[in-house]
Amino acid sequence: MALSDDRLEDLTAILGSDRVHRNAPEASLWGSSPAPVVFAESEEEIQRVVRWAAETGVSVVPRGRGAYAGYGNRVNRDFVILSLERMSGVLEHSAGDLTVTVRAGTSLATLRDHLSRRGQFLPLDPPRPEMTTAGGAVVTGMTGPKRLKYGTVRDWVIGLRVVLADGRVIRTGGKVVKNVAGYDMNKLFVGSLGTLGIITECTFKLRPVPPVEILILLEADDWNAVQRLSRRLLDSPMEPAAVEAVNGEAMRLFSEAWQAPCGVMVGFEDERSAVEAQWDRLKSWATEEGLRLHFALEGGDAAEGWRVLGEAVPGALDPPESETAVVAKGITLPDRVPEMLRAVDEVSSEEDLRAIAHGGAGTGVVRAVLRAPKERLNALTAALKRLRGRFEEPGGYLVLEQAPLEVKERIPVWGRSPGGLFMMRRLKERLDPDGRLNPGRFVGGI
């Protein structure tokens, strides 16, 4: 049921007609009813919207620029979309302390450009950094191939400002790296999908930009060769930034002429002497294991190579396509990544689907983009069910990061329940007892 005109008029009176758009196209990502989108420009305006929602019984669906707007279950209550994309900008950059504080709607690409002028960077590399906001990266916990070297989002967050469901504002952590007082409340909100509070500011620790970055793409004739080289590399004293196994469709993002069935992308970031020594050893090992060099890129070209891989992931608010696209994220043991990528290829081939897939041979995170004509929805859902079984059989997970509602109605978004679900529900009850924020979107219907 859509929101009544009276409730919308009250919301418009609070913020102004230029801040409330009545029919947001992205509302269809979470439910079938039309819903308004509200553009907040300050923390105080977010508090007003949250308090209005509490008074009227309306739920709030926070979002940044919408890169991952389709993540999670549908919302089965009346809701308003609260956009933070206008809350952008760097508030404080302490270059000497290697910390930065930004408004939650700041895109990671904007932050990267700002930090690069001081020779620093935030080591988070989720897909589509121009659309991924600081707050969005925190609440989704999204990472990319360089997770191998730099870790996860929670490793870089040192402070947050959050508006809770009752309109109160809290600060977690601080603005210095050595913040050890009390519980680490930051970790409650990282990966919470906006169900516990609305993040308004993020403070991150930083690193100096490495002097040299290179990206190597090696092709292989079979997944066994990828497995052997990856294991040899990861068992060595070398310190790659990423070891990303890729299927043939992922390799053809760089050139449609390449016909190899699989390969591996390896990144190094360090002093030149260290990078060159590691690259020389990798070349020797690749030859011994039967892999062939496609390219070795340096500096900005290397960064562009990783960008191309990330661009394979469609944005939730991209223009409609002629095909149905689903983004699935699998979690498995790092040593099983080539095996799981082989399974993606086998299943997609048998169901006559196109699948672009890659996975961290040292992290266990696999991401696959499956596409099918809209009339072949049955084949797409059948493939997803089979893949979920393959991932879950050894104790892993397969989550639908992005999928249209017609797919979510056939395939559960989250799959099997994770350990600690009881505790997650208790936290939700404590911080949002009325279920006002993103109700039902998270795992277990939280």
TrEMBL record:
SUPFAM superfamilies the record matches: FAD-binding/transporter-associated domain-like (SSF56176), FAD-linked oxidases, C-terminal domain (SSF55103)
Transmembrane segments: none
Cofactor(s) recorded in Swiss-Prot or TrEMBL: FAD
The keyword Transcription is assigned to this record: no
Domain FAD-binding PCMH-type: 30-209
Alphabetical list of Pfam families matching this protein: FAD-oxidase_C, FAD_binding_4
One Gene Ontology molecular-function label: FAD binding
Keywords per UniProt: FAD, Flavoprotein, Oxidoreductase
PROSITE patterns (UniProt xref): FAD_PCMH (PS51387)
Record protein name field: Glycolate oxidase FAD binding subunit
Protein species of origin: Planifilum fimeticola
